[in-house]
Structure formats: C-alpha cells, structure tokens
Amino acid sequence: TSAAGAPDFARERRQGTSILWVGDMRKALLALVLVASALLAQTVEGTVTSTSGAALAGVSVTLMKASGQNEVTAYGTVTDAAGAFRLDNVRDGVYVVHLQLAGFLSPNPGGPGNRPFAVQGGGPAKRLRLEMMPEGRVSGRVVDGRGAPVPGSMVELAAPYRRTFEQDTSGIDGSFAFEHVGPGNYTLLAVAPLSWKPPAPVDGQEFAWLPTFFGGVSFREGAASILIGPRGNISGQDVKLLAAAVHHLRGIVLDPAADAAPGVKVELWDTGNREDARSTVSKSDGSFEFAVTDRQWRLSAEFGSDTAKLAGSLSVQMAGQDLDDVVVPLTAPFSVHGSIRFDPPDGGKLPVGILFMPENGAGLPSVGEVENSGKFTVDGLYAGVYGITFPAFSAPGYYLDAIRIGDRDVLTREVEIVSEYTPISIRFKAGGGTVRGSVEDCGAATVLLLPQDRAMRRQGIVRQAQCSEGDHFEIAWVRPGDYYLFAFAPGSSAVIPPYDLDQEYLNRAVKLTVAGGSTSQVDLTVIPPRGF
C-alpha cells in the first residue's frame, strides 16, 4: 500500500511482469538445453539377420559403452518382426553391440562384423547390419567293444586349440547330446565308468576299457575332427570304446623317517586329464596297488590335517609291464629361498610375489613375497615338480633372462624341488628388442608374440598386446630370439598357455627374429576364430 494506505497497483504490475519475465526466461533456457541435448544425441538403427539372410525377430539388442576396462550398459531394445531395431537419443561415445536370441550365437563384440563404432551428435543416423550364427548340435552313443551301450559314461566335446570343453553323461541307452554348439572343429572323448564290466581275460591277461576318442583312438592327436558349421546338426557320432591290457602299479608309502606309512590316502590320476582320479589307502605295511593301462600317471599321497600335513607325489610311466617297488616318500612342508636381480642393477622394478605352480595343476600354487632387497622365501612346499612364474608382473625396460637352481638354468622347464636346500636365482636383463606395427581392422584383436622354440613358451617370454588408436601396436623389451607373430580375433582362446598352436595357425603367422636393441616393423591381418 501507499503512504496513504491505498494499494500500489503499479508496483504490483511491475512485480508481476518481472515474475512472468523470469518464468519465460527459464522456459527459454530449458528449451535451449533440450535442443542442445537433441543436437548432441543421435539415432542408432539397423537390422539383425541370421547368416542365411533371414530376419530375426525378438533379438535383444544392447549398446555397451566403454568405460575404462569395463563395459557399461547404455541402451537396449528388441528387434521387430522384420529384424529391425531403433535407438534414439544415443549420447556421444564409442559403443559395441551385444545380441541375444535363443538358438543363435552373438557375433563377438569387437570382432569381424561387429566392430566398435563412434556416435557423434548432429550427424546422420548410424546404421548397423548384424548377423547371428545358428547354434549346432552333436549327438551319438557310447558302446563297448561288444557293441553294448554304456550308460553313465563321461562324454567330453572339446575344442582343443581353444581350451574349451563341455561334458555330458550318457543315458541308459548310451546316448548323449550337446546342444548350443558353436561352429568350429571339435574332438569327442568317452570314458566308461570304472564299474563297467571289462572285457573277459585272455590267457590270464586282464583288460580294461580305455578313454576313447571318436575315430577309434586313445590319444587326442589322432582323434577324428568333428566340424560344426552354422545350424550343424551332427548325429551318429558313436564312440566305440577300446580295450587294453591291464598292468599293476605297486608301491609303498614311507614317512619322513623312511618307515612304512599305513592308512595313507593314495591318489592316482591320468596326467592327460582324461580320467577322474581314483584312490586307495595304504595297507598296514604301507603298500598300495592300482590296475592301470599303459600311459603316464601321477601318484600323490597325503596324511594328516591341513595344519600338520605330510605329502608326496611323483609321475610314473606304464609301458607294457607291471611296475613294482614304487616309493612315494612323505615329507613335511619346507621353505625355499632365492633372489631376484637385475642386470644392470639400477632401474629394475621387483615383482610383488613369486608363484611355484605344482606340475600338471596338482594342487594350489605356493606364493612367496619378494623383499625390497630382491630376496624371497616360499613356504609350504613339498617335494615335487614345480613351474616358477610371477603374478601379473612386468619389469619395464627388462626381460626375463634366466632362472637358475645352483649352476643349472631351468628357464625352459619345470623343476624338481626336493628340499629346502634348493637355492634359486632369477635374473632380468635390460634392453631387448621392440616389435611394432599395425593390424588391419584390428578392433579388439590380441597381438601375440610366441617363441618358435616350444620350450621357451612361458610367462615372461610370451608377450601380448592390444591395438591402440589407429590400429597400431607395440611390444617393447622383448627377449632376443626367433618368434611367431599373430593377431587373433576377439573370442579366440587359442592364446591360452601352454600355447600349443597347430600348424594351421603357425602357417598364418609372421616369422621374425628379434635382436637386442633393434626394432622390427610388422603389419598383420586378424586371424578369425577357428571354424568361422
């Protein structure tokens, strides 16, 4: 009101006008923000078909946005009856696509036909054309040498060079089936249950059923290959079990005082990992016995609790006759000591730990912590054979040069450790060579530098790299020597230790010699996963 007490309508009108003006400005700013957001967003659309060209409806389509080393779900939708999809208002960034539909395999994100792509606002809609490969099926029966079906058999379908496998158990009629099988080359293995009646003895000679591969052999290298293509329905892959003469493996378990150790659990397993372990308990005189066929086996014995355990192990080779007087000595756990040094000594970065891996994965690794001085101690070891490696370790500027026990260089093999009096020294050397180059349409491919000498294929010498921007890669501080160089497509697990690649891969590799202080320039193309 005015000084006279009358309402001041002019001031109220001015205030009302100001409020309206501020409101209009807020609306205008909000509209500008929405317009700007629309300009920064883009549409991603496309189609999903099978490899035969048929449209696929109901496919779950997910855009994943890279975030450091992880992928974050950003946008999702489902294809319509024509296999089409559309995602609006996709923000700027680099994306990969994940597809999901029962009965079909999604193309590997980052692989051929499904490369990462960039979204930039203001441009035309991003169009994608994606294909999904139908899954396959493999089925058959397990029968023995008499032609009788063998129920309860373990059946394994494996892609040896991908280090992948699936297992099934045969039914009452010996039948088995593997669903959702991706394209590729496979081997098929069948192992009869130990309870299955063996063949009748001949002239007193006992027999047993062998683990048998499809193709009628007992070793993987001679197995018939099963090639699965898109929508491959491979039936009739019957495995007829082979039989072999049985020989006896007899031995004794001794305690640390070299006396017979009764009541000790003794396990036996196939070093080729084709059979489950079998076990027995040593008798009152410490003796034990197994009936086995010819091949390499692993024996192990344990006694006591986890806090006070005695253990021992060894490998034995059965070759056409009984094997008697095998001795499995039990030992208490002990510690070994060693040191890591750098040549030259300045500038080396020590690993945080060192691993002793039991032979053939027989047990958990023992871990030792590395001190600032480079010395280390590994506790809890038992007499046996070990591989020496490092957890996620690289020494910038240096390469792994030698692992020595006493005056023996054991870099290229697993080592037998029998007591705490086993001095170990590890040396890293400065320099090495550099391998760099480019990979055509690299995407998320892995570049693998693999020694030509199989004995040198160990962690610290085998090297891997990912492509950087512009499809370039670089591997520095490489140990001098002769190598194969590959670029593997995403999803190929052929780069898993022990790196036993077959000749098909080796024929597609680039061979090169790396010299200390030199740089090798190499251009590569991506090798797709086997069978694609």
Give the SSE layout.
Layout: H1 9-40, E1 42-50, E2 60-67, E3 70-78, E4 84-90, E5 93-100, E6 104-105, E7 117-119, E8 126-134, E9 136-143, E10 154-159, E11 164-169, E12 175-181, E13 184-191, E14 207-209, E15 212-213, E16 226-228, E17 233-234, E18 239-240, E19 243-245, E20 247-254, E21 265-270, E22 278-281, E23 287-292, E24 296-305, E25 308-317, E26 323-329, E27 334-343, E28 353-358, E29 366-370, E30 375-381, E31 384-389, E32 398-405, E33 408-409, E34 415-417, E35 424-430, E36 433-440, E37 446-451, E38 463-466, E39 472-478, E40 481-488, H2 503-507, E41 510-514, E42 519-525
Parallel strand pairs: 1-8, 9-17, 9-18, 20-26, 27-35, 36-42
Antiparallel strand pairs: 1-4, 2-3, 2-5, 5-7, 6-8, 9-12, 10-11, 10-13, 13-15, 13-16, 14-19, 20-23, 21-22, 21-24, 24-25, 27-30, 28-29, 28-31, 29-30, 31-34, 32-33, 32-35, 36-39, 37-38, 37-40, 40-41
Give a description of the structure:
Helix content is 7%, strand content 48%. The protein has two helices and 42 strands. The strands form ten sheets. A nine-stranded mixed sheet has the order 33-32-35-27-30-29-28-31-34, with no helix packed on it. Strands 10, 11, 13, 15 and 16 form a five-stranded antiparallel sheet that branches. Strand 21 and strand 22 form a beta hairpin.
The number of strands is 42
Give a short account of the largest sheet: 9 strands, mixed
The mean pLDDT is 82
Radius of gyration, CA atoms, in whole angstroms: 32 Å
Strand order of the largest sheet: 33-32-35-27-30-29-28-31-34
Tally of DSSP helical segments: 2
**Which structural class matches the secondary elements?**
mainly beta
* Percent strand: over 45%
Q: Report how far the terminal alpha carbons are from each other.
A: 86 Å
Q: Globular, elongated, flat, extended or rod-shaped: what is the shape? A: globular
